[in-house]
Amino acid sequence: xxxxxxxxxxxxxxxxxxxxxxxxxxxxxxxxxxxxxxxxxxxxxxxxxxxxxxxxxxxxxxxxxxxxxxxxxxxxxxxxxxxxxxxxxxxxxxxxxxxxxxxxxxxxxxxxxxxxxxxxxxxxxxxxxxxxxxxxxxxxxxxxxxxxxxxxxxxxxxxxxxxxxxxxxxxxxxxxxxxxxxxxxxxxxxxxxxxxxxxxxxxxxxxxxxxxxxxxxxxxxxxxxxxxxxxxxxxxxxxxxxxxxxxxxxxxxxxxxxxxxxxxxxxxxxxxxxxxxxxxxxxxxxxxxxxxxxxxxxxxxxxxxxxxxxxxxxxxxxxxxxxxxxxxxxxxxxxxxxxxxxxxxxxxxxxxxxxxxxxxxxxxxxxxxxxxxxxxxxxxxxxxxxxxxxxxxxxxxxxxxxxxxxxxxxxxxxxxxxxxxxxxxxxxxxxxxxxxxxxxxxxxxxxxxxxxxxxxxxxxxxxxxxxxxxxxxxxxxxxxxxxxxxxxxxxxxxxxxxxx
Length: 500
Ligand code: SF4
Known about the structure:
The chain is an alpha+beta fold. It folds into three domains: 4-180, Aldehyde Ferredoxin Oxidoreductase,  A, domain 1; 193-383, Orthogonal Bundle (Aldehyde Ferredoxin Oxidoreductase Protein, subunit A, domain 2), CATH 1.10.569; 392-479, no CATH class. 45% of the residues lie in helices and 10% in strands. It has helices at 4-15, 68-74, 114-125, 136-139, 167-172, 193-208, 211-220, 223-231, 240-253, 283-296, 301-314, 318-331, 338-350, 353-358, 361-368, 406-420, 427-430, 436-448, 454-479, 488-494, and strands at 28-33, 46-52, 59-65, 80-83, 92-97, 100-104, 130-133, 148-150, 159-161, 175-180. The strands form two sheets. The protein has a six-stranded mixed β-sheet. It has a four-stranded antiparallel β-sheet with strand order 3-2-1-4. A hairpin with a 6-residue loop joins strand 2 and strand 3. Helix 10 runs parallel beside helix 12 (318-331) and helix 16 (406-420) packs across helix 19 (454-479). The longest helix has 26 residues, at 454-479. The radius of gyration is 23 Å and the shape is globular. The mean pLDDT is 89. The structure holds iron/sulfur cluster (SF4). The site of iron/sulfur cluster has 12 residues, from loops. Iron/sulfur cluster binds at residues 43, 45, 65, 259-260, 264, 266-269, 423, 425. Pfam families: AFOR_N. Keywords: Membrane, Transmembrane, Transmembrane helix. Residues 1-184 form the Aldehyde ferredoxin oxidoreductase N-terminal domain. The chain crosses the membrane at residues 409-431. One of its GO terms (molecular function) is oxidoreductase activity, acting on the aldehyde or oxo group of donors, iron-sulfur protein as acceptor.
């Protein structure tokens, strides 16, 4: 049985040929809630969105938080496959609800910024509508564009834009937004409700009793992750109790979202207390702050907040934006300050040539200035490229998995979390827990009625990874062209059978 991220990949491979390019109508966008989204299993508000990355690449994935996944799963939808392109003048909105799925062609959302898009959609479909969509930069196919996803309604922040792009693929199909209109979050079909809730409690307990998932993340928010990038396991948790007290105080004053979706037992959202009374508006804001410091030596939280909000309104990956602007100014040998950063954002808004160049991400900028080899180290590379710099040590894993390397085990566990729809932030608590695969196999049985065992759960995730690699290889092989001299076009004509 296919499920979650594995199902998304399966459907891409089944429906999209390996020679398909990113913006081809025959490329597909697949959405697959995790197996446990829409149930009471904690922190399972994640959905996988997949599409073919390019002619010579395999699958691009986005792992997105928000109530969309729970609501879609509550309609008992295991996956959605979208193929083709809309020829409508206005970008379309696809609506899922208890009465079926339909396409709205007449919503006037062309080039609307993200907050206006959300407001218009909620006016039409109700305040509880969960939405995933794109901003104007996605409509104009900027590679820097990403997907936005709403948080639970009625609180701030209202939405976030994801890392890793894909807004341009939605734009190429003429899709502005996907909406789930249903009210319920936990109505997905479950065969053994009592059993799943018993195992959900066990899982929740493991997550909250971990110092990172139950302490640092809800205490500091995802800025914890920034600290861990520098300090690894040695992260200092000593100031956490004071911060938690402050958070409680301000949570009472402000109507803030502390979780991306209901029953996340971690709740790392909006926990980053700034100096003074202010909260960060989104976890990405802390990353933008760090990026501004690293790329421009700008240490200004208010400025980071402005850049993050402006980027989100345009539907951009705000962190990658900072690095792209930095690379652009390096390329033209200009020492950039705040004014130049705001100027670059304006160029993107205007869709000028400079704006489009910056919107092509660091890779696009570097290919434009590839004679300047000093820029190469500043091009963003996929995280997996850093693999060789580390020696991963998993302190505890089940005896029967001792033959799998710690690194492969780490990847397999990440895939398992995607398959079940569990937020990756829970990985700190779950990856080294020896009972986790057993609990998940019980959860699998309670949800589906199909007996399984821990080794099968991990085997499925290893098979998923292998299948993705094969698809990637086939795409590369398909795009290899024969290197025949251009003169051949004359010879084609000379030797053509039809010309006698
Ligand atoms: S852990 Fe944080 S990012 Fe993950 S679902 Fe919960 S609130 Fe969202």
